[in-house]
Amino acid sequence: QVQLVESGGGLVQPGGSLRLSCAASGILFKFYSMTWYRQAPGKQRELVAGITSGESTNYADSVKGRFTISRDNAKNTVYLQMNSLKPEDTAVYYCNTRHLAAEYWGQGTQVTVSS
Q1: What does the pLDDT average to over 36-46?
Q2: What would the mean pLDDT of 30-55 be, rounded to a whole number?
Q3: Is the pLDDT of residue 100 over 90?
Q4: Stretch (H or E) spanning 104
Q5: What is the pLDDT of residue 77?
Q6: What average pLDDT score do residues 99-109 get?
Q7: Distant-in-sequence contacts of 62-68, Cβ < 8 A, 24+ apart
Q8: How far apart are CA 62 and CA 91, in angstroms?
Q9: Which residues of 63-85 are buried (b: 16+ CB within 10 A; e: fewer)?
Q10: What distance in Å separates the CA atoms of residue 2 and residue 8, rounded to the nearest whole number?
Q11: DSSP secondary structure of 35-96
């Protein structure tokens, strides 16, 4: 059974930093691309950042230069380092992976950027 468990969210002031983690189980993690999405209240879920098994990365324009996605295959974990946070980064952040026709999501972790 595939499980994705996010952690690391919280309340942070504008300009601050957070690091999100997503621990995966039930998959051969090193072979999977992993993606972070976010969903703000009243908005559609959007892609934030992705990393392939070969560690190629891609980012939404809104987070380029501020967020960094990385992975530790020994720990079956993908990270999202978020710096220079803005109020508009406030959202629930979700971890995602896909295999063939199946798609898997974590439960999400809340990030709130506010003074």
Answers
A1: 97
A2: 97
A3: no
A4: strand 102-105
A5: 98
A6: 93
A7: 62/88, 63/89
A8: 14
A9: beeebbbebeeeebbbbbebeeb
A10: 20
A11: EEEEE-TTS--EEEEEE-TT--EEE-TTTTTTEEEEEETTTTEEEEEE-S--GGG-EEEEEE
Are the beta carbons of 21 and 8 closer than 8 angstroms?
A: yes
Output DSSP code: residue 26: S
Say what percent of the chain tops pLDDT 90. Answer: 96
- Kindly state the tokens that stand for 34: 């992993």
Which single residue is written with the structure tokens 């003074």? 115
What is the pLDDT of the chain when averaged over all its residues?
Answer: 97
Residue position matching structure tokens 């798609």: 103
